[in-house]
């Protein structure tokens, strides 16, 4: 048994040695995938100092093609032989496309050497060196909200593909110069280099640069978020942050991300978001500028899951109310309802359908249980009008001393339609008789109308 244990130990040691050797060989290398056609994908481990020519030489034998016949396309550009891979913003497990020289080669200029991800949309972010060649900062130019494992604001990678075949083999005729070129389909043209595709229209998309994304994983671009190259102070705290949000107003007011979150949450608590017919539920510049509404709702994902859920709920409620709907006043329900404008005596029923609704019947005018006759005056809210600070609705509701008792009564009873006396049903049929001696009204528990 001892000899067998020694033998097993030696085998495990040898296997571990080879594993470590292989791991050491791979350290410092970048793993990418080279795709040649729809069915051929070759994994490649790049050295950090490789040029495009080195990559062609490494994959030519695997693709059964000559090095000089290969063309490498990445992010809408054909990469020149002397360009270093590390200068092209190629990340771990990125996909690079290789095509043959069958189509007319694209003229590669100095401008074409710069990958799209490092080509900013605003001219102040690039400089010229002594030879007059434009150089680009490697700071992040694009930001996305990663809905994958990050669940956060992340640097983004701009990618491009052919709108016809959906492959990344299209080379663009010109770089995008503004966000409209990227976000509005059909703005940028090009030539698809795939053998069996004649596509001429570019399609842009974004990926999260913070984690290794799957081929079909996209990220939502947050085009108002920018790197603060100009060192503009925040409109709220006056601090200078590295990453900021620029409102779409004429003055382009700047706010740091933390102040933006506080600003949005404050507006949510006060129900002061704006329901715009064209844009939806949103906010404008804190300076009150015109034409400054945030049009991309994913910017509000920066608030976190809980606050974003509130934003969605409040937005749906506001849309419903503006469309002439009401919210069920029964505690614990709050279902959105669109009653018939001709409904009898403002009587609204919270219909129980599809797991929603509670069956509560109420008056649309006073939002109390359905009744006969004029509505009664509502109790004062008890919140002083002269307060100089905002009270969160949820905290105010939970801080009322008798609120629990009132809520229990409202849930377990229904008001007499005639005198509004709270009445509790204790089994039996639905025929109710008001317990108030001066009333004695006969009514139905379900429909709350006269028996």
TrEMBL record:
Active site residues of this protein: 429
Keyword tRNA processing part of the UniProt annotation: no
CDD domains: BRcat_RBR_parkin (cd20340), Rcat_RBR_parkin (cd20357), RING-HC_RBR_parkin (cd16627), RING0_parkin (cd21382), Ubl_parkin (cd01798)
Pfam families xref list: IBR_2 (PF22605), ubiquitin (PF00240), zf-RING_12 (PF17976), zf-RING_14 (PF17978)
Location of the protein in the cell: Cytoplasm, Cytosol; Mitochondrion
Keywords, in A-Z order: Autophagy, Cytoplasm, Metal-binding, Mitochondrion, Phosphoprotein, Repeat, Transferase, Ubl conjugation, Ubl conjugation pathway, Zinc, Zinc-finger
Catalysis: reaction(s): [E2 ubiquitin-conjugating enzyme]-S-ubiquitinyl-L-cysteine + [acceptor protein]-L-lysine = [E2 ubiquitin-conjugating enzyme]-L-cysteine + [acceptor protein]-N(6)-ubiquitinyl-L-lysine
First-tier enzyme category under EC: transferase
Cross-referenced InterPro entries: BRcat_RBR_parkin, E3_UB_ligase_RBR, IBR_dom, Parkin, Parkin-like_IBR, Parkin_Znf-RING, Rcat_RBR_parkin, RING-HC_RBR_parkin
Keyword RNA-binding: no
Gene Ontology process terms (BP): mitophagy; negative regulation of intracellular signal transduction; positive regulation of catabolic process; protein ubiquitination; regulation of anatomical structure morphogenesis; response to stress
Residues covered by the RING-type domain: 230-451
EC number: 2.3.2.31
Listed name of the protein: E3 ubiquitin-protein ligase parkin
Any one GO molecular function term: ubiquitin protein ligase activity
Gene Ontology CC annotation, any one: cytosol
């Amino acid at each position: 048994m001892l000899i067998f244990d020694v033998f097993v130990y030696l085998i495990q040691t040898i296997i571990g040695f080879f594993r470590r050797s292989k791991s050491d060989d791979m350290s410092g290398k970048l793993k990418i995938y080279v795709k040649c056609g729809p069915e051929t994908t070759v994994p490649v481990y790049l050295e950090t100092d490789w040029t495009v020519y080195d990559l062609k030489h490494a994959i030519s034998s695997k693709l059964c093609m000559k090095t000089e016949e290969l063309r490498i396309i990445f992010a809408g550009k054909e990469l020149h032989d002397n360009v270093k891979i590390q200068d092209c913003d190629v990340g771990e497990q990125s996909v690079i496309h290789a095509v043959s020289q069958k189509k007319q080669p694209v003229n590669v200029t100095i401008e074409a050497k710069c990958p799209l991800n490092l080509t900013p949309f605003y001219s102040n972010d690039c400089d010229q060196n002594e030879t007059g060649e434009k150089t680009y900062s490697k700071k992040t130019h694009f930001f996305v909200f990663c809905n994958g494992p990050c669940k956060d604001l992340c640097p983004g990678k701009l990618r491009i593909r052919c709108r016809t075949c959906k492959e990344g083999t299209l080379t663009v005729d010109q770089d995008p110069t503004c966000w409209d070129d990227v976000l509005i389909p059909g703005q940028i043209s090009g030539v698809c280099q795939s053998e069996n595709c004649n596509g001429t229209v570019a399609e842009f998309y974004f990926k999260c640069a913070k984690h290794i994304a799957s081929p079909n994983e996209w990220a939502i671009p947050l085009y108002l978020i920018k790197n603060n190259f100009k060192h503009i102070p925040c409109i709220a705290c006056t601090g200078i942050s590295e990453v900021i949000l620029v409102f779409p107003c004429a003055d382009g007011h700047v706010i740091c991300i933390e102040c933006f979150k506080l600003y949005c949450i404050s507006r949510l608590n006060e129900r002061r978001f704006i329901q715009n017919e064209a844009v939806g539920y949103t906010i404008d510049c804190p300076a009150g500028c015109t034409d400054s509404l945030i049009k991309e709702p994913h910017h509000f994902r920066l608030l976190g899951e809980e606050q974003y859920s509130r934003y969605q709920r409040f937005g749906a409620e506001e849309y419903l109310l503006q469309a002439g709907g009401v919210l069920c006043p029964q505690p614990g329900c709050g279902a959105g309802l669109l009653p018939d404008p001709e409904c009898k005596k403002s009587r609204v029923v919270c219909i129980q359908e599809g797991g929603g609704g509670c069956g509560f019947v109420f008056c649309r005018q006073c939002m109390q249980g359905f009744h006969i006759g004029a509505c009664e005056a509502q109790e004062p809210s008890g919140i002083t009008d002269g307060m100089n600070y905002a009270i969160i609705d949820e905290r105010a509701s939970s801080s009322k001393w008798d609120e629990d008792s009132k809520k229990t009564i409202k849930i377990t009873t229904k008001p007499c339609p005639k005198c509004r006396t709270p009445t509790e049903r204790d089994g039996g049929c639905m025929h109710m008789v008001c317990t108030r001696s001066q009333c004695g009204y006969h009514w139905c528990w379900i429909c709350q109308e006269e028996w």
